[in-house]
TrEMBL record:
This is PLD nuclease N-terminal domain-containing protein. InterPro entries: CLS_N. It is a multi-pass membrane protein. Keywords: Cell membrane, Membrane, Transmembrane, Transmembrane helix. It is found in: Cell membrane. Residues 15-59 form the Cardiolipin synthase N-terminal domain. The keyword Cell membrane applies. It comes from Arthrobacter caoxuetaonis.
Length: 125
């Protein structure tokens, strides 16, 4: 029985010491509910209750991890998939236009040769 009491006293003392150190190490701006000196006084004057209240209501909450913004825009054009997609579309359109011009030129050359061949043939009248 005395060992159990001694163990309880050690655990309570450890919790109180941890609460005091945690309060001292916390930033005054992040402490919730009441001021940091008031929390220290509460923990020391009401040892068990003060430590429990500190952990429940005074301790700074966990800082949320920064989430990447969903609306974040790329900083450089080559990082932007939409920009790269548009470049690819423009490249394909230019290739198609060049192919179309080449075919038109071939057709015009054929018509010219055909016309020259027709002019060179003697008429059978």
């Amino acid at each position: 029985m005395p060992r159990l009491v001694l163990l309880g006293v050690i655990v309570v003392a450890a919790v109180i010491i941890y609460a005091v150190i945690d309060c001292l190490m916390s930033s005054a701006r992040e402490v919730r509910s009441i001021s940091k000196p008031a929390w220290l006084a509460t923990i020391v004057l009401l040892p068990v209750l003060g430590a429990i209240l500190w952990f429940l209501f005074g301790r700074p909450g966990r800082r949320p991890e920064p989430r990447p913004r969903a609306n974040r825009h790329p900083t450089a054009p080559d990082d932007d998939p939409e920009f790269l997609r548009n470049l690819e579309i423009r490249r394909r359109q230019k290739e198609k236009e060049a192919e179309l011009k080449r075919r038109e030129q071939e057709l015009a050359d054929r018509e010219k040769r055909s016309k020259q061949n027709d002019d060179e043939k003697p008429s059978s009248n």
